[in-house]
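Let us begin with a simple case.
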Amino acid sequence: MTKSVYKIGIFSLVVSVLTGCQVWDTARIKNVKETESTQQNALVFCTGTETCEFERLDLIKIVDENRHQIGHEAIEQGVVRLKGTSLNKPNTLYLSVSPQQHEIVIRFYPISKERAEKLFVIHKFEAKRNYTFKMYRNRGVGTGSLLNVSAPEPLCVDLIEGQKTIRRFCKPYNVLNGLGEFVEMKLNKRQ
């Protein structure tokens, strides 16, 4: 009985510490002061799955892959922003990035929190623009052999600037080994 009470007490302490860190991080993010230069920044969002996380912006670690906590350097550099009131809700974190070329790594969780799909993108972000990385499953009508038709539809991520899709990355399913990589696809001119 004493061991059970001890374990519950330790568990409660750990949960309290983690919750306290998250509350502290939320307050620090909300108190980021906008300056003239940060008002020129591009805003970068991710959506399309229940959870998506920015892993890295250039060399700045944003969200740790294992603990799912925001890196202190990302908060100190003023890169992260919060839409809404809490970090407890998924997809509330977004980035404020200087208008120049950056490498961004994003983790999407299309099926479960245990299996991430990573997208690495180098893009030149323009001042005062909103960008959204949106993941979806490209549902199409398959033709061909039963093996080709039975393969899962590819995962795709559109990079949307404002309301316009400017880049598309798809990860086709490889029927031989099940693995694939995100590959940039050519967009139709009409989009």
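The second case is a distinct protein. As before, the sequence precedes its structure tokens.
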Amino acid sequence: MSRHPDYIPNGVIPAVILPFHDDFSIDEKSFRKHLQDVCSVKGLSAITINAHSTEVASCTFEEQQRVLEIAQDEIGAHIPIVNGIYAEGSLEGERLARAAAQGGASALLVFPPGPFTMGHRPEMVVDHFKRIADASGLPLIAFQYASSSPQSYPLDTLLELVEKVPQVRAIKDWISSPPQHNKHIELLQSRARPVNVLSTHSAWLFSSLVLGCNGLLSGSGSVIAALQSRLFQAVQAGDLKLAQQLHQQISFTADVFYAAPWVDMHNRMKEALVLMGKLPRAVVRPPLMKLGAAEIGRIKHALDQAGLLPK
């Protein structure tokens, strides 16, 4: 049962990373330290686990349960936990959702299931979310992929989803088009039962938040949660001068974290945490691979420009 039963996804929600030992086993000690470090930031509304940032695709069902267990033990009493539901099929999604609810998660971030890489029909989307909603009883965040992806939900499908599955209380919006992003904000957040739009547009986060997003959910929060929290608060307060300054700091990291290929984004964040003295090593599980020295050098330079390296 959730420790935070009234939580509705909103505000600043970092997605944390998952450290590994050299043998690819979970480094629980470093994970606990990372959780404490991220959650020491003021202004967060929740943290996200078992998502892209924790390399969920390479984690077993049992490992995902253990990740939630550690997070609950370390920070669950103080802050809500959003648990990712990453599954090839809806039945496995149900199983993951049920386990997450039993493990005390406060909300679920629902990824598109594997077959949606080949497209989908609206009724498939609704059924997938309804199964997860019924299995968990928790608020859901729909991960809206970039418009270039076949896993992205057309606006009509998205509106049908939030109408037929009222447990969908937010979307993690990666739609990539500012006009479409703005349309999501206008249509979803103005509903009688609002559906919050959580930006994940790290490359243009300042612009995205100015449009009126009710929050943000991003893996780069594993490194720059403090900057994200300050930016969100500055925009909310209408302090655009401060927001612009924070945007510049964030841009240095966004440019290097989200360079091509995107598959290495969280790999780069681990290297950043090592450079900042917050992780002992930057091990990733295959098929991800260690970054080369030149790229690590670029990450170090970006952190230096952003003022994030220890003196």
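Residues 240-257 form the longest helix (18 residues). Residues 19 and 101 are 24 Å apart (CA to CA).
Keep these points in mind for the review questions at the end of the chapter.
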